[in-house]
């Protein structure tokens, strides 16, 4: 590429994005602009961040597009470097080269000025940090309607604790203040720290204050997803785990880095459905729970999920008001590692509706809960479940029409719940008659 080119075709491509360090060309932003990065090309540490907020041509206003015509940062699968990719497309690569990015330490810096942007089909890797808020792959802050999809965000490292390193990475960093990254989402994306060496050396939070995560893989981090409810929160069709103990929390011995697969912050309505949530491995962690809910006014719909191998109970409800209502329907829990599916450790009671769940080796501790309904659940020991074929190998699916989870549930309805009435594999549950219990509808296969 050549920064002095027009940048409006593959043959006249720029070398750098206009908001990258070192860009020498000319550019004026128009709403709905599309930036296509060539597949197989690597942009090095020195050009980052793509500083949308501070290098934009409309400083002081939003640098993105509109809701109906967003700006696009992504790829064209027909345009790639065949000497790198071979005969088929591979993603363009942003590499921090395992060094700190000197300005803001992020690949894409928007903060509050990148609303209505799509980031698509880009690989970002080899990130490094020491400490401090803002270490991230994409820092969208309070920008709204940012869609991150089909991306690979992976392979991070950090300074040791003795050298000042702290567990401060938030891979996708949203905003903790209004408007809270409202309408933003992570779709069909892999976030993978690559930290498989030891369970007690985890680091990195996959996403902070992003309301929607779907069809994604979150693994090898010390925290999964902190979601908000603006306008509502949803985690769906995703695979979350393993989640490891934070290296900072282990050394410091405090709960600042408490490890969670999913945590809800702020008040809102949350839909957590059709996920695999597993392998949370922070032995001895002070706040190691797969899911934490309990803000004032929370309403949780948790359905068609499978949860297994969590150090603490799958749920830790930490109620700060009595308004929390949780609908826990058609899930499969293997609690053999901890003996409980969940409890309320908050200072207020909460309302629980638990139906059509398959509980293996542990149920909810309801001593600090007000029960709306707690019926049509199958409760088994681990040996009972395994003996009937409900094993981790087949993700606890029923294997026979006579199994106790088949045709023993009740029909449930939820008008506003996305994909309600489908099991975790997408099989449609009947609209009349009995449902199966747990995350599966038995199909005889």
List the helices and strands and how they pair.
Elements: E1 34-36, E2 42-43, E3 50-51, H1 52-55, E4 71-74, H2 82-85, E5 93-95, E6 106-109, E7 117-120, E8 123-129, E9 136-141, E10 146-149, E11 152-158, E12 170-174, E13 185-187, E14 190-192, E15 205-208, E16 212-214, E17 217-219, E18 223-228, E19 233-236, E20 239-240, E21 243-244, H3 247-252, E22 260-265, E23 269-273, E24 276-281, E25 289-293, E26 299-303, E27 306-310, E28 315-317, E29 325-329, E30 332-334, E31 342-344, E32 350-355, E33 358-360, E34 369-375, E35 378-380, H4 382-387
Parallel strand pairs: 1-4, 2-5, 3-6, 4-7, 5-8, 6-9, 7-10, 8-11, 9-12, 10-13, 11-14, 12-15, 13-16, 14-17, 15-18, 16-19, 17-20, 18-22, 19-23, 20-24, 21-24, 22-25, 23-26, 24-27, 25-28, 26-29, 27-30, 28-31, 29-32, 30-33, 32-34, 33-35
Provide a quick synopsis of the model.
With 445 residues, this protein is mainly beta.
Describe this structure in words.
The protein is mostly beta strands and 445 residues long. 4% of the residues lie in helices and 33% in strands. The strands form three sheets. Strands 2, 5, 8, 11, 14, 17, 20, 21, 24, 27, 30, 33 and 35 form a 13-stranded parallel β-sheet that branches. It has a twelve-stranded parallel β-sheet with strand order 1-4-7-10-13-16-19-23-26-29-32-34, with no helix packed on it. A ten-stranded parallel β-sheet has the order 3-6-9-12-15-18-22-25-28-31. The chain is elongated and about 70 Å long. The protein starts with 33 loop residues before the first strand and ends in a 58-residue tail after the last helix.
């Amino acid at each position: 590429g050549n920064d002095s080119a027009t940048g409006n075709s593959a043959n006249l491509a720029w070398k750098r994005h206009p908001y990258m360090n070192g860009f020498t060309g000319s550019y004026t932003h128009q709403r709905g602009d599309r930036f296509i990065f060539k597949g197989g090309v690597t942009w090095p540490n020195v050009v980052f961040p793509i500083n949308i907020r501070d290098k934009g041509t409309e400083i002081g206003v939003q640098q993105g597009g509109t809701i109906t015509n967003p700006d696009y940062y992504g790829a064209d699968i027909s345009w790639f470097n065949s000497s790198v990719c071979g005969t088929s497309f591979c993603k363009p690569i942003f590499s921090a080269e395992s060094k700190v990015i000197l300005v803001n330490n992020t690949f894409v810096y928007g903060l509050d000025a990148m609303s209505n942007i799509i980031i698509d089909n880009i690989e970002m890797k080899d990130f490094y940090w020491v400490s401090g808020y803002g270490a991230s792959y994409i820092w969208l802050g309070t920008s709204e309607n940012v869609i991150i999809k089909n991306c690979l965000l992976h392979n991070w490292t950090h300074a040791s604790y003795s050298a000042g390193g702290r567990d401060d990475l938030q891979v996708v960093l949203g905003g903790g203040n209004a408007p809270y990254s409202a309408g933003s989402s992570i779709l069909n994306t892999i976030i993978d720290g690559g930290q498989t060496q030891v369970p007690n050396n985890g680091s990195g939070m996959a996403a902070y204050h992003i309301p929607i995560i779907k069809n994604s893989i979150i693994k090898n981090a010390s925290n999964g997803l902190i979601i908000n409810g603006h306008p509502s929160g949803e985690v769906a069709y995703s695979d979350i785990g393993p989640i490891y103990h934070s290296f900072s929390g282990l050394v410091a011995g405090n709960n600042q880095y408490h490890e969670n697969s999913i945590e809800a912050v702020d008040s809102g309505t949350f839909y957590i459905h059709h996920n695999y949530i597993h392998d949370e491995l922070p032995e001895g962690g002070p706040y190691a729970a797969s899911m934490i809910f309990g803000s004032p006014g929370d309403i949780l719909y948790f359905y068609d999920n499978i949860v297994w191998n969590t150090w603490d109970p799958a749920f830790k409800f930490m109620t700060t008001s009595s308004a929390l209502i949780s609908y826990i329907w058609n899930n499969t829990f293997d609690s053999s590692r901890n003996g409980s599916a969940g409890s309320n450790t908050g200072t207020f009671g909460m309302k629980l509706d638990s139906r059509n769940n398959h509980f293996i080796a542990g149920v909810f501790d309801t001593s600090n809960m007000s029960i709306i309904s707690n019926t049509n659940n199958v409760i088994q020991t681990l040996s009972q479940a395994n003996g009937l074929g409900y094993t981790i190998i087949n993700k606890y699916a029923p294997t026979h029409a006579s199994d106790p989870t088949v045709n023993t549930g009740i029909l449930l309805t939820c008008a506003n719940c996305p994909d309600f009435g489908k099991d975790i594999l997408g099989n449609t549950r009947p609209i009349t008659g009995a449902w199966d219990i747990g995350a599966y509808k038995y199909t005889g296969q």
